[in-house]
Structure formats: structure tokens, C-alpha cells
């Protein structure tokens, strides 16, 4: 009689343990779900929310941006501050419809190569690596000094150029899309001068 009661108790305890475990697993799974990308941007207060982990496969970098990334080895850590397509057009007069034509392709490729030299650093630098209020300094691939800071809304600013999208990943490469082109004054002058002679 006693043995049977003990057995009953053990069964009850085991079933309760199983229930508790199940509940635990379910709640952990459920509570993890809200971490999926959120659309609401809480400007200012929680800067890290804006650093979305976007994969480059689902993201259109634009022709020139893709050209830049394709020039790098895909399995080494790099961070590239890629100009947006608008910035390529506005600041370098490069347009997808015109600058990729066979007679202009070589010049375009040379310009994009130089821009890559100014805007890539051989290390991972995601927006989370920069504290707001901090100014960090890295040399680009071509030795151009980059001063990186973070705005109050979590976006990176490099040499006073603001990012539009941060933390896009492609394998080992981190891409930040910039609303401008990072380049030294000399190169900027040469690009604009060339453009003037072409238009005259
Ligand atoms: C572009 O470069 C390639 C290889 O260097 C060369 O064969 C070709 O003639 C160049 N095209 C123009 C339009 O200069």
C-alpha cells in the first residue's frame, strides 16, 4: 500500500517537472520573438535599435557600391563606408545610365577604386563599436585619416558625412551607406575639374 502511494507521488512529481520544463521552454521561445527587427525608430533614446542587421543579399547597394564591395576579398574583415547612389551622382557625377558605358567604364572603375581606398578600413567597425560622444580615428586603406563618431540617433558620421544605413553585413564585410563621398580635397578637385572640361 505504501509503495503504491510513493509510486503515485513520484509520477505526480515527474509530471509536474515536465510541465514546468515545457512552460519554461515555451516562454523562452515566445519572449525571444519580439527581438525580431522592429520598425519603430525611437530617435535618441535607444540608439542601438537603429543598427539593423541587414544582409547584403536582400539589400540593393547600387551598381557602384557593389563594384566597391566586389573589389575586396570577401573572406577578410573590412568596413566600407559606401556612398549612396545619390551621393555618387551628386558628388562624383557618376550615373548608372552613363558611366558604365564601354567608353567610360575604365575611367569609372578607376574613380571607384580610388573611392574604395578612401572609404575602407581593414577591420570590423559596426555602429555598436562606437560610443556616442566618442571620436575614433582609423586610417583608410590608402592611408586617409577617418574620424568616426556616432550621432544621437545612432547613425555613424565619418569626416562629417552622415550615414543613411548602418551595419549591412556581407560575410566578413560591414557596409555603412553614406550620404556623401569620403575623399581628400585633391581628388575631389580632380574629379570636378575633369567634369568641367567634359561639359564645356
Ligand atoms: C579599358 O581597359 C582595357 C584593359 O586595360 C583595355 O583593353 C580597353 O581598351 C580600355 N577601354 C577603353 C575604352 O579605354
TrEMBL record:
Residues of the FAS1 domain: 48-182
Protein name: FAS1 domain-containing protein
Gene3D superfamilies in UniProt: FAS1 domain
Organism: Glycine soja (Wild soybean)
Keywords: Membrane, Transmembrane, Transmembrane helix
Family: Belongs to the fasciclin-like AGP family.
Alphabetical list of InterPro entries matching this protein: FAS1_dom_sf (IPR036378), FAS1_domain (IPR000782)
Transmembrane regions listed in the UniProt entry: 12-31
Superkingdom to which the source organism belongs: Eukaryota
A Pfam family per the record: Fasciclin
